[in-house]
Fold this protein.
Amino acid sequence: VESVLHQSHRSTALVTGAAGFIGSHLVDRLLARGQQVIGIDNLSRGSRRNLRNALAAPNFSFHEFNLNDLESYRRVISGARIDMVWHMAANSDIPAGVSDPQVDLRDTFFTTFNTLQIMREHKIKRLAFASTSAVYGVHQKVLTESTGPLFPISNYGAMKLASEAIVSAAVESFLECAWIFRLSNITGSRATHGVVYDLLNKLKSSAFELEVLGDGKQRKPYLHATELLDAMELIVERAAGPLNCFNIGPADPGVTVKYIAEVVCRHVSPRAAIRFTGGSKGWTGDVPRFEYSIEKLRALGWSPLLSSEQAIARGVDEIHSEMWSC
Ligand SMILES: NC(=O)c1ccc[n+]([C@@H]2O[C@H](COP(=O)([O-])OP(=O)(O)OC[C@H]3O[C@@H](n4cnc5c(N)ncnc54)[C@H](O)[C@@H]3O)[C@@H](O)[C@H]2O)c1
């Protein structure tokens, strides 16, 4: 990571989804590393507020447009010498993509397709791509990067898997290096979605009852956004193959939704009654349980310090103070 700091001093990064939860933290991190950063977002889910610090930085420029508008994409990129693209834009509302498949086709797949098209035209050869555990679908075993077959159960997962596939094909034809990050659930400040965000949001409007989707037994691993950034930076620094795919998550089997609901209630509204809607999953397309192997990441020399419990505790604290201050 130290040498990324030096190498990257004068380089220029393009971040798509820059105003979103992860994208905005990434922008701050790259700026802190001394990079020039170009951020793109259509603000469909992200906000300028997330970019408050970045917008004041002289080496940051922000462009609000839809990545599916190729003319605007070309206009913004023309003349810039971009060393690397961090493609973070996607639909992040999985149920929305289940009720309308166009959502993930457009915002999860075509944003990737168009980003590759632009990279090809402008001879940009390095891509970091935020993929997801949702590409795996349902498996009984601990998920490693070679687990298969990959049959996602949501349109979101399907369009991420299709995105991984075209990234792989681009490596064969024009990319020098691509990093595919298969993220577990991420939590922390600026979250625009996710279980912690949703539960806090519900308690904000009704302090005495907390409705929880499913039976609460869904169990997933959670990583704090700061550790995600550490992991992504380290992978880009140390994994130098043409196509690099890594699970990124905590080193534990995760926590249940019931556990998270209890933490949220204790933190915000101890008298709230928790009511489960029932059923084994939160929504159509939800993978109710999975466990990650991060052995490949460990072999690079890094593993997260925070457990899922600790990531959740921090996430609840951070999202709560943000939500209650506005
Ligand atoms: N947060 C998680 O737990 C998690 C887990 C797995 C994977 N991911 C992936 O990480 C990336 C970042 O996720 P996030 O949690 O920050 O979500 P987010 O919704 O906060 O950020 C995504 C950003 O992309 C923007 N965007 C979407 N479609 C666009 C379009 N057509 N044109 C321009 N901008 C567009 C949105 O406005 C938003 O600001 C996504 O690719 C997501 O799939 C996130």
